User: Fold this.
Amino acid sequence: MNLTLKIWRQKNANDKGKIVDYKVNDVSPDMSFLEMLDVLNQDLIDKGEEPVAFDHDCREGICGSCSMYVNGQAHGPDSMVTVCQLHMRSFNDGDTIYIEPWRATAFPVIKDLIVDRSAFDRIQHAGGFISVNTSGNTQDANAIPIEKENADRAFDAATCIGCGACVASCKNSSAMLFVSAKVSQFALLPQGQVEATDRVLNMVKQMDEEGFGNCTNTGACEVECPKGISLENIARMNREYLKASLKG
Amino acid sequence: MALDSKIPKGPLADKWTNHKNNINLVNPANKRLIDVIVVGTGLAGGSAAATLAELGYNVKAFCFQDSPRRAHSIAAQGGINAAKNYQGDGDSTYRLFYDTVKGGDYRSREANVHRLAEVSTNIIDQCVAQGVPFARDYGGLLDNRSFGGVLVSRTFYAKGQTGQQLLLGAYSAMNRQIGRGKIKMYTRHEMLDVVIVDGKARGIIARNLVTGEIERHSAHAVVLGTGGYGNAFYLSTYAMGSNVTAAWKAHKRGAYFANPCYTQIHPTCIPVSGDHQSKLTLMSESLRNDGRIWVPKHKKDVEAIREGRLKPTQLAEEDRDYYLERRYPAFGNLVPRDVASRAAKERCDAGYGVNKTGEAVYLDFASAFMRYGKEQAHVKGLDENDEALVKKLGQEIVRNKYGNLFQMYEKIVDQNPYETPMMIYPAVHYTMGGIWVDYNLMTSVPGLYAIGEANFSDHGANRLGASALMQGLADGYFVLPYTIGDYLADDIRTGPISTDSKEFDEAEKNVTEVINKLINNNGTKSVDHFHKRLGKIMWNKCGMARNEKDLKEAIAEIAELRAEFWKDVKIPGEANEYNEELAKAGRVADFLELGELFAKDALVREESAGGHFREEYQTPEGEAMRRKEFQFVSAWEYKGEPKDAVLHKEDLVYENIEVKERSYK
Amino acid sequence: MSGILNSSIGRKFAMALSALFLMIFLLQHFAINILSVFSPDTFNEASHFMGTFWAVQYLLQPVLIFGVIFHFVMGFVLEINNNKARKVSYAKSKGSANSSWMSRNMLLTGLVILAFMVLHFIDFWIPEINVKYIQGDMSGLINPDAADSGFRYYEELHHKFESPLRVGAYVIAFILLSLHLLHGFNSAFQSVGANNKYTKGLKGFSKVYAIGIPLGFIFIALFHHLNH
Assistant:
């Protein structure tokens, strides 16, 4: 199939950037979206132009590197996939496809479709951990049984890949789903209880300082999340936060 | 230089404990005066950086990704082994040790593997304490599954995302130290050289991938946790960015490269769909717990299936060849990876491959659906003879166990694996070879360490499933932090290492020259063009089956390709900006050197062992034929061109395990 | 606890609490108004009680006014902050793919409701304040000098819905209120942390409320209009 691409091109953080039109021909429906961009880039290199820069690494939907707003949706039209697992069979011959970087003040553009998501890391530095040293003398892994349901929920929250699709699709660029996934994972496990108060206060404080917007519960993040992280996590974080605030 | 593996004396089971008791320590106040560079933030690098920082060292950690959390350890699916014996099925440290040495086809070091088995249980404890949400049973205790090449259930898992959960555990441990200021994290940085001062590794040269700036970083020791080099094959289950560059630069600075030809080709990957393919996707080995592998028995059915006239589900049971169960009745579908991959290749080469290109076999869950379904129907008191109901119940169980893998398969292939069997084919997945290290994980360069997949030590010629995560974390959490102290104890009075030295000048100049050469090359062909050609040579001539003729051709072809690359590669853009083509070019340049050494190593190893299969050395039944005279580690010393590399042999001594025929029948 | 209103979640929580308070008020308002359909007398008595009981007038009324002002001021503050969080917008964005129109347009529906409230204040509240606290007539009678003239409340209400324009404005406002509540009610529960397997029933209830209450108000308006 043949496609028209409208891609955001921006040389670096200081450049203003603009949408540029490209044509790609002979796209196979079995290609992934990124492989389609590989074809475009090969073509651009052959013509002596600069290829489109985008983040990608594992190309199997788990590293969370890829980050494109495709036709008005984070990771494109298919659900429960990252853009590296989006396949061209989701499009039709002759389609025009908009490809833009994540848009959020907290995620400044580095080049073309690449944004700086270090704000996410800084939120994790503020409290996304359980303080346990590597001694080799921690208690036996089976010493504390954990109700299967809670273990499963903690796992579901922990599957967040930190791609930022939640921020990108939120009309307020809120990072609540991302932060709540980590808060929830630890809130649901006995090991996470000791630091629960400080964790949620510090992570939310950092999140606010990074300039993310506030959650207005539109639920867009949950729909666009490639891992299906549930809004219940945000509710849980709200509870945890209120509880922590009351404690001081 | 003679290779000294520094394996401690004494009985096998006491070596590690005794060694820990006897090595030098650095006191807490002095640790503050010592800097350590850790390159790579996967399971090995991430856990090492966190632990070293906990201990009090000043750590500088580097990764080329935008966050440590994206290292490719994250993609490991199935699980992590540990000799916990929670299932009470006869597991023990010895058995894990034995299985690993046997699985590695008797080409790994006894002492290293035993240590790995010893600390395996600590890893699980540590990870649970960190909040890693492993799968649990209804009693709230940890669940286990079984993996290839073993007869017990010792694999801990978190659905099909075990690597992700473990990596995020290590990442969270790092985050705690970054927050405390004990780790200084450099993301989007790529190491391009090791700096050796007075014979010791004292720093690195790194390129800031955003600005293109070349930076000098000094430390008292340098640790490489930079993963494997399977991307030399272009198509693999590795991440697009996975590369050999850090390891190769270390090799060029004096670190011996061991067993480069030992490559794991994983049996269950999604087959190649076309020329556009940029990477291959793994379907976890855990699927072989419940999936049965087969091809049609008769050629006519193969034809019919390829032409779409026949659906695999329509083929009668007696017309199917469950070739693993046929050939290896004891282990069946759970034979080790090298064996399963070769068996798939054998069937496909014989013309029984089931997709259009003839390079795919079936992985079928139909009988698992029925088996689990019957059990569920019984438990729930429903009609066990209602086939549709039983199938549905069974599918639910399978969905709970492997749901994300089935979903991934469907997204990529556009076929529903609940209704039709999966199609799979082997793909490059892991490299057992790597930088040579001694028992302390130090390379042949003092002060330079290699951990995780980047080193060679624990898996011999073939790695068992769920052992990579175990080794990465063992090295990073429990081994390196002890052994590095022994070396650093001499550095407490050294003071900060200056980056204003002729060694740093020289290293930086080297790096800059290469970059300038690449960017100004004005060739005609893209980096990928060369990478794909290299991949074809590697896959066709150094892949699942190798022979002398092919290997000799490969050596010549790779050398030629390398020359052509340097003459004709074309890199757009500038050096002082974000330039992925430039970064890729540097990596492919190193693959082009490594590839040749790889082929040379495979040529020298005139035997078949694990992932290395030489067609000239096989038993009449087509099994690998190991040879006593090759019971050594090949450690290659860099001498300019790969063809000039010098072979050093480290003899492998088996005092605790009888070296036997490796049989899974 | 300090500075909770400066945090994102604290503001969200405050927004939700004020919303829940306003929804309780709305229910109460509806309960009294619907009496006007069944029994003008009961309606009059209830109105008089509400209009003269000290706790309602001097305690609940100021709290209510504060609640309304707080809710919309906070709404604006959040909107401004949220706009700052994305300075460059997308060339193409498909909000309908992942969220409801209501959830994305709370500001719009809120502004219409605010405009309606101005009208509503002019219609009822200002005259009421004028009669009671400026003219000093606390009797609630149609003719304060004639004790048998009966309460004025029903008459006033009935009279207001004579004009089709006003009824039209009310109907539109209530439709937008319904849209506002369709997102807002559930959203408030989510904000205070009530979203888990035990709260599934709440979602159904919130829908019934969000559609039922505004529909009831529309019914009342139309009832009085058509009975002229």
